[in-house]
């Protein structure tokens, strides 16, 4: 008893703001050809895109953190993102490319994840330039709004493309580009993890405008700032959390789109994945957004929760973004809550300072893209 009391007397109880986090970034890049044209699935073959990946190094140490997938396409930190088609027996027939995805390993700091993404982006840019391509970050295909499933699914594909909400809507990602921002928190339990996913889903309409980068659609200025948000919201998840598929099987929620998923490898257990941001041209913005997400995980004051994204709220935000006072006020409130929760975490607070300035300026990447386009410059292969 005496030893137990002594242990209790000196036990260190960590404040929630001192919890440790780990981070990862998955970033989708589009490609432009040497003549400046946008290289989507109508103008790019899988072999061309795969040749870029083949020229990049493979590190077996990556595999502890990164999922390979059934077809073995994802063996590196870079891989061809696309839509796979199968024959009647489940054999791979083809993969139509959407672009190149870059995935970082899991890092102990936001800066570590951002620096890794920068380095891997530079490596991809080098091999792309040698092959006559450049990479571009944009949230939505500027030339077309949909990917046609041609030919229609066969019987095998119908069985395997309807097993989950995400499989049923997988074709939508062929015209959208965005990051998965991943974080995990030390000591978080299953109930708290699911609650965080529901919190981020509820507040997503006021988070995503910081990233908007898709003001073009069907070959023209769309009239809003995020065609990606307008098209995908409601069909695809805003946030997702990964649980132990065996131990937590009974804790999975049946929602459409999904909020909970079984982890596919041990490193995914406990992961919080925010999926609704547009692709960002500067990795620094991903770092700022990761700090904001960290603060929202730690926050204990915000009471909004949703199991599925609010389509109408997202579509309103997608038009004017931070220029809409309803959006800007909501975003500012989230930043204030995150700031309070991040007290003492100076690096995170410095990143929130930069986000505060973006909100004050009503700025996001799409605003800069539209200004460039209005000045007569091409943007993502689209010419004025």
Question: Would you count the extended β strands for me?
Answer: 10
Average pLDDT confidence is: 93
Number of helices: 12
> What ranges have pLDDT less than 50 throughout 5 or more consecutive residues?
1-13
Beta-strand residue fraction? 15-25%
How far the N terminus sits from the C terminus, by CA atoms, comes to 78 Å
Shape, per Cα inertia axes: globular
Query: How many strands, which pairing sense, and closed or not: the largest β-sheet?
Result: 8 strands, mixed
The chain-level structural class is: alpha+beta
Query: What is the helix/strand order?
Result: HEHEEHEHHEHEEHEEEHHHHH
In which range does the helix fraction lie? 25-40%
Using the CA coordinates, give the radius of gyration: 21 Å
Please identify the oligomeric state.
single chain
